[in-house]
TrEMBL record:
Residue spans of biased composition, Acidic residues class: 10-23
Superkingdom assignment: Eukaryota
Cell location: Cytoplasm, Cytoskeleton; Nucleus
Official protein name in the record: DnaJ homolog subfamily C member 7
A Pfam family per the record: TPR_11
Amino acid sequence: MATVGYDAAADPEMDSLSDEELEREAEGYKEQGNAFYVKKDYSEAFNYYTKAIDLCPKNASYYGNRAATLMMLSRYREALEDSQQAVRLDDAFMKGHLREGKCHLLLGNAMAASRCFQKVLELESDNSQAQQELKNAESILEYERMAEIGFDKRDFRMVVFCMDRALESASACHRFKVLKAECLALLGRYPEAQSVASDILRMDSTNGDALYVRGLCLYYEDCIDKAVQFFIQALRMAPDHEKARLACRNAKALKAKKEEGNQAFKEGNFEEAYGLYSEALTIDPNNIKTNAKLYCNRATVGSKLKKLEQAIEDCTKAIKLDESYIKAYLRRAQCYMDTEQYEEAVRDYEKVYQTEKTKEHKTLLKNAQLELKKSKRKDYYKVLGVDKNATEDEIKKAYRKRALMHHPDRHSGASAEVQKEEEKKFKEVGEAFTVLSDPKKKSRYDSGHDLEDDDMNMDFDANNIFKAFFGGPGGFSFEASGPGNFFFQFG
């Protein structure tokens, strides 16, 4: 371990001093170190303890004091070395064993810490600090066991809980911190995971596990190129890091497959794009954000292929993975509009508008609300059996067909229930024709207005409409020409 301060070996005057004089000189340095320690000037205390060690390298207490100072400076690995040297020089040095155990504990080596505290209790059976620290070491071992089970079961919240408890006694354990950070990343808590990994890398820039976690966060945030760089760096530091190797392979495969799908979509090869996005979704189920985008992309392709229900399902999966994914809400809302599921469309557009209050989103919401309102009225186009873009002639032909089909005289021999139903349909056909054959009323109807509220004359008689449409000087009648056969005859 490199030391700072006085070097006795380099001082020619020290060669002429006796062992007794050297010890006295070293004691002086130790006393000065103690004074600085009491004043909490740990850096100066470290320097003077180092001078004492240089003069008398066989004195266990000097190493013990310097270990205590290094612990105050949070340099636990160096403190561990000094405390181990202290007990090598004096196996009965209780404080040395105690400090060694404490360093092991802080660094997360609970088994080694337990052995040290047990040694202290052999030397002093009623040492309360050793008794408490031994309990802390046993707790850490239990939390490690629980965390291992939790990780295997993919209960990452349990692992984070266990690591938080373990870190209360093992605050300098990088292994526990990295496991916590990895589980935070797997839970989608990327800023927290990044923060933990970054703290470790500030202290140890070569920590392969921390580099892997940084890459994992970027990978799960869909920053795949940057993620690959961190995975490669992690593998440089730890060539056998299997998690980094697998993540790197998945990241590269995911990026390549997604780009292939995007290219196929741009070229209009929708079936191929659909297949490529489907393949990409099998690569890594844990990559939530990228998979959300892939589901949304596949939904876009699905809508192009008229697979609207599948597209809705894909959007729902994307939203389940990422509840803040506006694009997925918009795509699903459009699919709902295309399948005339207007209530669902309104709900999605409301969610979008609440999140991003843009003019475009407001317009989309208003349009959906209008279509919902229209859908709750009688659909006159469906009543006549025509398309919404039907011409005037097509509307007339449709009316003629439906009016003759449902005219009450045609069903005079049917049951009362059937007669009542056909009369109702006959009236609806007349109502539909009244609106759709009048350009002004049709325009108001198409724009979603309630015609009854517009002071427009909606009073009509279905029979009068029928007479007016078919004309004829002497009225009309339906006559049977055989069982179930009727023809229309003017009088």
